[in-house]
């Protein structure tokens, strides 16, 4: 059983949703980032999503773009990112790790998916590869034993949703609103998207945009999410020297059923 | 999608899933418009009565007389950009959009978008790298005069590619009301095909004008290539004319042996950026390089995917002209022909002058893609007032 499946089973038994914490690998430097990865797990993150810094991150907002630029300015290379994952994997054998990155980094490194698998990553989401273009990438991931994650948006037509459902393995990354990553807008979470995905047999729906406060987590879960990922809020907190563990704890607490307001 | 959006291995539609419906809608509207005689009639009327087509073909009198200039500098707006913004503007109307956004490098495309925004009644927002805002202040003011909002982009290298990133972000959030009026024959499908079709008129007119004037086709067709829209527009109707050499001229900047240039097809390798698989200037790991050219319009690390295909298939050749060569050509055209051309266009002319020296008997058609008013202040700094 994959680490994701085991995690969703374990949390499902407790009627909890999964909380994913996103960090940019190598931000602000390699050692600090390694410590931050541990910190979010200590705060209660069930799964880790990691960005590979890219010079032109068109799907990201200013907070995550700035994090990538800090990492690149610190001289962080793709190989360093895989080493950070490998180190995390040795310290946390069971926490699922998903990579979020861009097509050009994958294309430039022959065997990106294989290297990801060897480092101990579980899934790969390529932000600028929609279902239309995913096939050659999905093949590479399948051969390497990496689970593809695709994005389902509120405006994705049904035919494309069916392809997302068929191709995604670890979880389905749901985007409930238009736009880019960022802390500025909290969620209105559309319940029809998780319902449609479940009907299509997609892997568990996880909401990925607009999660920065406990009420966003609760709203996403009420809309049918099996999990949430918070990115910009955590990256921003770390960049400002805030208490990342406390932020993660407050968001994770909101995934527990008994914390939902009745 | 109804078309493949591929040119050989290049092109495609590499965008976040959330943008795919917007691109499908655009492709549908474009293909329907192509089949609608009323659309063509409206566009052609604007091109002739508003923009001033057809543009002249000028034979050089004092520079080598085997050089012919296709005068897109005389088009309303001062560059070839006007051709395709009118097309996309009409399409945006057809789709019921109320807002236009665009990226701009030199400011030419921003000005062109502001023109169509004013003409057709759109709210218009232009994203422009902060460095380009500084070096092209007159164009910024032109856009503002026509009612557009100019947003300086401070991220990354503060030039064209950063403006594209920002425009894509805006579009992701606002595509229901907003048309992204991409400025060149690059980006995700259907832009490379659509922009080529709207720019094809450059080569179609030039081809007919050559036949009319000298009774034969040119031996070589030369155009500058940044994103590549004026080049693909000039080349398109010559692609099937096997005897005609197609030559794209990239910005060799401070020299092709260094890193300060914008010669994507000459020095880059295939990758995926801004929606398409195409040649890119990038490092070994796939990080996109910062580029350099004296001309903001050629200062871009990618290129339209059809040019990548024309390079690999061997149908077109791509060469470089340095900043210095372009400036010399800019000066030569001014002194000898009384024409101030854009720095971008001067790259094409620089190569044509080399070619004319090597082959005095061959007929050379040059795409003079824009006029040089926007570059005069920079030229004064570079050449000196007493030059």
Characterization of the model:
With 262 residues, chain A is of the alpha/beta class. Chain A has one domain: Alpha-Beta Barrel (TIM Barrel). Chain A contains twelve helices and nine strands. In chain A, helix 2 packs parallel to helix 4, helix 2 packs parallel to helix 12 and helix 6 runs parallel beside helix 7. With 387 residues, chain B is an alpha/beta fold. Chain B is 44% helix and 19% strand. Chain B has a six-stranded mixed sheet, with helices on both faces. In chain B, strands 1-2-12-11 form a four-stranded antiparallel sheet. The mean pLDDT of chain B is 95.
- Give a count of the beta strands of chain B, DSSP E runs of length 2 or more: 14
Series of H and E elements of chain B: EEHHEEHEHEHHEHEHEHEHEEHEHHEH
Q: What general outline of chain B do the C-alpha atoms trace?
A: globular
| Tally of alpha and pi helices of chain A | 12
The low-confidence runs of chain B, each spanning 5 or more residues with pLDDT under 50, are none
> How would you sum up the global shape of chain A?
globular
Helix content of chain A: 40-55%
CATH superfamily of chain A: Aldolase class I
Euclidean distance between termini CA atoms of chain A: 35 Å
This entry's quaternary arrangement is heterodimer
| CATH-defined topology of chain A | TIM Barrel
> Strand sequence of the main sheet of chain B, in spatial order?
3-4-14-9-10-13
Question: What is the CA-CA span between the terminal residues of chain B?
Answer: 54 Å
* CATH architectural grouping of chain A: Alpha-Beta Barrel
Number of helices of chain B: 14
Tally of individual domains of chain A: 1
Structural class per helix/strand content of chain B?
alpha/beta
Instruction: Write down the Rg of chain A.
Output: 17 Å
């Amino acid at each position: 059983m994959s680490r994701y499946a085991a995690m969703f089973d374990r949390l499902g038994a407790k009627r909890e949703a999964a909380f994913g914490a996103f960090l940019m690998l190598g931000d602000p430097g390699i050692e600090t980032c390694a410590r931050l990865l541990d910190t979010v797990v200590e705060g209660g993150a069930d799964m880790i999503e990691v960005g590979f810094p890219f010079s032109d991150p068109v799907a990201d907002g200013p907070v995550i773009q700035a994090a990538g630029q800090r990492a690149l300015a610190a001289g962080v290379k793709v190989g360093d990112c895989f080493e950070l994952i490998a180190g995390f994997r040795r310290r946390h054998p069971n926490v699922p790790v998903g990579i979020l990155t861009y097509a050009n980094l994958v294309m430039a490194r022959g065997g990106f998916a294989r290297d990801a698998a060897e480092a101990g990553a579980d899934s790969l989401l390529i932000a600028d590869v929609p279902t239309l273009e995913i096939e050659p990438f999905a093949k590479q991931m399948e051969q390497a034993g990496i689970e593809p994650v695709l994005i389902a948006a509120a405006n994705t037509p049904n035919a494309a949703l069916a392809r997302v459902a068929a191709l995604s393995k670890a979880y389905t990354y749901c985007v409930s609103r238009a736009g880019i990553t960022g802390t500025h807008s909290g969620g209105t979470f559309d319940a029809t998207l998780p319902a449609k995905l479940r009907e299509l047999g997609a892997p568990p729906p996880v909401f990925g945009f607009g999660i920065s406060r406990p009420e966003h987590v609760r709203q996403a879960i009420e809309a049918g999410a099996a999990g949430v990922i918070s990115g910009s809020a955590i990256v921003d907190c770390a960049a400002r020297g805030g208490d990342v563990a406390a932020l993660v704890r407050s968001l994770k607490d909101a995934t527990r059923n008994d914390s939902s307001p009745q | 999608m109804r078309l493949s959006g591929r040119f050989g291995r290049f092109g495609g539609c590499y965008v976040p899933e959330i943008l795919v419906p917007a691109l499908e809608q655009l492709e549908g509207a474009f293909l329907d418009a192509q089949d609608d005689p009323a659309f063509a009639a409206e566009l052609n009327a604007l091109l002739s009565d508003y923009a001033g087509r057809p543009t002249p073909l000028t034979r050089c009198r004092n520079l080598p007389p085997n050089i012919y200039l296709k005068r897109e500098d005389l088009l309303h707006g001062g560059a070839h950009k006007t051709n395709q913004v009118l097309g996309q503007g009409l399409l945006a109307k057809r789709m019921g959009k109320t807002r236009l956004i665009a990226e701009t490098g030199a400011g030419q495309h921003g000005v062109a978008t502001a023109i169509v925004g004013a003409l057709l009644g759109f709210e218009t927002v232009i994203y422009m790298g902060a460095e380009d805002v500084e070096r092209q202040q007159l164009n910024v003011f032109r856009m503002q005069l026509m009612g557009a909002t100019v947003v300086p982009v401070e991220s990354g290298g503060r030039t064209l590619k950063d403006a594209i990133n920002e425009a894509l972000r805006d579009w992701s959030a606002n595509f229901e009301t907003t048309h992204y009026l991409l400025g060149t024959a690059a980006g995700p499908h259907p832009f490379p095909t659509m922009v080529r079709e709207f720019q094809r008129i450059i080569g179609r007119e030039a081809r007919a004008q050559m036949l009319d004037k000298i009774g034969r086709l040119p031996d070589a067709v030369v155009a500058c290539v940044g994103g590549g829209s004026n080049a693909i527009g000039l080349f398109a109707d010559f692609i099937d004319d096997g005897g005609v050499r197609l030559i794209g001229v990239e910005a060799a900047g401070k020299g092709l042996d260094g890193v300060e240039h914008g010669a994507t097809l000459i020095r880059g390798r295939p990758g995926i950026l801004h929606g398409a698989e195409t040649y890119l200037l990038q490092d070994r790991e796939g990080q996109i390089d910062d580029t350099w050219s004296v001309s903001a319009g050629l200062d871009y690390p990618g290129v339209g995917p059809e040019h990548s295909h024309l390079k690999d298939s061997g149908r077109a050749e791509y060469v470089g002209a340095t900043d210095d060569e372009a400036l010399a050509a800019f000066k030569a055209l001014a002194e000898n022909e009384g024409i101030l051309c854009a720095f971008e266009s001067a790259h094409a002319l620089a190569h044509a002058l080399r070619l004319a020296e090597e082959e005095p008997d061959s007929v050379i058609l040059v795409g003079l893609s824009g006029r040089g008013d926007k570059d005069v202040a920079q030229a004064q700094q570079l050449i000196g007032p007493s030059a």
